[in-house]
C-alpha cells in the first residue's frame, strides 16, 4: 500500500513546488508586462544583498562578497529593438525576394549561353 502511495506523494510534492514557483513569479510581476519585469528586477537587486548578509551572519560565515556589477540593460529597449528589426526585415522581404529571383534568373541565363 505504501509503495503505491509514494509516486502519488512525489507527484503532489512536485506539483505543489511548481505551482508555488509559478504563483510567486506571477505575484512579483515576472509574468506581466516588461515594465513590471523591470520593476521586479530592481526589487530583487535591492533585496538580495541584505538577505545574503543576514544568512551569512546566521550561519557564522564572515566572508566579504564581491560587489554586484552594474548592468545597464533595459528589457523594454531590447524588446523594442528586436521588434523594429523584425518589422524592418519583413518590410524588405518582397524587394529582396525580387532581387534574388532576378539574380538567379540571370545566373541561369548565363549558364545557358
UniProtKB/TrEMBL annotation:
Swiss-Prot/TrEMBL GO biological process terms: cristae formation
| One of the Pfam families matching this protein, by short name | QIL1
Q: Which is one Gene Ontology cellular component term of this protein? A: mitochondrial crista junction
Keyword annotations: Membrane, Mitochondrion, Mitochondrion inner membrane, Transmembrane, Transmembrane helix
Q: How does it sit in the membrane?
A: Single-pass membrane protein
Q: Where in the cell is it found?
A: Mitochondrion inner membrane
Keyword Transmembrane in record? yes
Mainly resides where? mitochondrion
Is Iron found in the keyword set? Answer: no
Q: Check the record and name the InterPro entries matching this protein.
A: Mic13 (IPR026769)
Q: How is this protein organized at the quaternary level?
A: Component of the mitochondrial contact site and cristae organizing system (MICOS) complex.
The UniProt family comment states:
Belongs to the MICOS complex subunit Mic13 family.
| Function statement | Component of the MICOS complex, a large protein complex of the mitochondrial inner membrane that plays crucial roles in the maintenance of crista junctions, inner membrane architecture, and formation of contact sites to the outer membrane.
Q: Under what name is this protein listed?
A: MICOS complex subunit MIC13
From which organism does this entry originate? Cyclopterus lumpus
Amino acid at each position: 500500500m505504501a509503495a503505491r502511495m509514494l509516486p502519488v506523494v512525489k507527484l503532489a510534492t512536485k506539483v505543489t513546488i511548481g505551482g508555488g514557483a509559478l504563483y510567486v513569479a506571477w505575484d512579483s510581476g515576472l509574468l506581466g508586462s516588461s515594465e513590471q519585469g523591470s520593476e521586479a528586477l530592481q526589487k530583487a537587486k535591492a533585496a538580495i544583498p541584505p538577505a545574503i548578509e543576514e544568512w551569512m551572519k546566521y550561519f557564522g560565515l564572515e566572508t566579504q562578497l564581491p560587489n554586484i556589477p552594474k548592468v545597464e540593460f533595459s528589457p523594454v529597449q531590447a524588446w523594442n529593438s528586436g521588434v523594429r528589426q523584425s518589422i524592418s526585415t519583413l518590410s524588405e522581404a518582397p524587394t529582396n525576394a525580387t532581387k534574388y529571383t532576378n539574380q538567379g534568373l540571370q545566373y541561369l541565363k548565363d549558364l545557358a549561353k
